[in-house]
Amino acid sequence: MDKQKALVLGMGLSGRSSANLLLKQGFSVFGHDQNKTLLDENEEIALLKSKGLVTFTKPDTYDIHQFSLIVVSPGVPQSEPLYMEAKKAQIELIGEMELGFRSVKNRCVGITGTNGKTTVTLLVQHVLNYSGIKAIAVGNIGKPITSYLSSNHDENEILIVELSSYQIETLTSKVFDLAVILNITPDHLDRYLGMRQYAIAKIKLEHCIKIEKLFVNEKCYHEFKSLFQTTHIKLFGSSSECDIRTDLENVYLKDNFEYKLPIDLKGILSHEIENMMAAYAIVKEFGVTAAKFLDAFVLFKKPAHRIEFVREIDSVNYYDDSKGTNIDAVIQAVTSLKGPLYLIAGGVDKGSSYNPWKKLFKEKVKRVLAIGQAAKKIKDDLSPEIKVEIYETLEAAVKSAANQAKAGESILLSPGCSSFDMFKDYKERGDEFKKIVNLLRKKGI
């Protein structure tokens, strides 16, 4: 009997992980990617080829009708020719995450949002583990579900699954015991037709929950209320209608006091407070007490490149927020820092206007140092209200900001753009920023 044939679209991390699982499941597996160098030189792909994977770069190399299943990687848009042809041919087309979830037996928590989802995912994992509950972070955070399933894994672990809108697009199974939508703000508008389409992709998560147990940020819920179909949504925020709320001093479950906010979070409603409440909402469902949560929270270290303090030189503080890749993330970073600052922004434009920065930046940002492909657009959108200077390199921008900044001011890298014009990813961009900063010398030395 001939093996069923499966096609994997996109041979990045998710695609390779999918191909590996499909081979283990007994499929004849074919992988398509336009990057010939990747297919020819990647060591993991070479190993998969030794197990039977066949790869190709040209869409017309194979008759698409021979495949019984097509697995699409998150980075492959629905406008990709093979994707469109598969839909037209009515071949079953799923994402990497859907492929994995069809075999998952673990309890699962789904976490999505434009900003903060990695931090909340890691915080929930940390708190649960600290509380003696086995949990592991997977998904968009870097470990594909299919990779987790291909390794030795424990079905008693709770999977804390970070989800991008791209991954939710092709997810259909009801796998989550509960889920959270942290926020929905402009991002990826180079892929979606507008905010409505982007929000629809995020909110599709509600259809992947076993029972209606969905936590949503109240601002997000009211902005996109017409798109939700779930009736038993639990809100978190600051108003009296929220199931989990804060008065910026304490956190309450309805009217019942739960815990006091840490001193450095009191007074201003920030993403950090909202992230903290979202994480608490999740872990409370697994029996974690407020006292245990606070003990764990104090020990939690945020992942790198998220408003990360780098160094102080001549009483000027340097912060790396390279993960701030959209308009709202930059606003949150600027708002969170005290005193005047110099902002280094730019990279590959993602389709949003930079105009929302104007009002906030007038009071806080002394100058924007713009880099990358989006530099001119940033200057056009912000001028003349905000002073914008364009630089060819990140190093030139950092050194200029260092020369201009005075004691008590800050220099912040928060690009509001993706990194792919100048760097491999946001991590490389952030690491380069820190390297440049750490090589700076004090004035007069």
The main sheet comes to:
9 strands, mixed
Q: What is the name of the CATH topology of the largest domain?
A: UDP-N-acetylmuramoyl-L-alanine:D-glutamate ligase
Helix content: 25-40%
User: CA-to-CA gap between the ends?
Assistant: 76 Å
The structure class reads alpha/beta
The residue ranges in which pLDDT falls below 50 over 5 or more consecutive positions are: none
The CATH class assignment of the largest domain is: Alpha Beta
CATH superfamily of the largest domain: Mur-like, catalytic domain
What is the alpha-carbon Rg in Å?
A: 23 Å
Describe the structure.
- Strands 7-8-6-9-10-11-12-13-14 form a 9-stranded mixed beta sheet. The protein has a 6-stranded mixed beta sheet with strand order 15-16-20-17-18-19, sandwiched between helices. Strands 3-2-1-4-5 form a 5-stranded parallel beta sheet, sandwiched between helices.
- By secondary structure, it is α/β, with parallel strands linked by helices.
- The model has no long low-confidence stretch (mean pLDDT 93).
- The chain has helices at 13-24, 36-41, 43-50, 81-89, 96-101, 117-130, 145-150, 165-169, 195-203, 218-223, 271-284, 290-299, 327-336, 357-364, 375-382, 394-404, 426-439; strands at 5-9, 28-32, 54-56, 69-72, 92-95, 108-112, 135-139, 158-162, 178-181, 214-217, 233-237, 244-246, 250-253, 256-260, 308-313, 316-320, 341-346, 365-371, 388-390, 410-413.
- Strand 13 (250-253) and strand 14 (256-260) form a beta hairpin.
- The chain folds into 3 domains: 5-96, NAD(P)-binding Rossmann-like Domain (Rossmann fold, 3-Layer(aba) Sandwich), CATH 3.40.50.720; 104-299, 3-Layer(aba) Sandwich (UDP-N-acetylmuramoyl-L-alanine:D-glutamate ligase), CATH 3.40.1190; 308-439, Protein-Tyrosine Phosphatase, Chain A.
- Helices cover 35% and strands 21% of the residues.
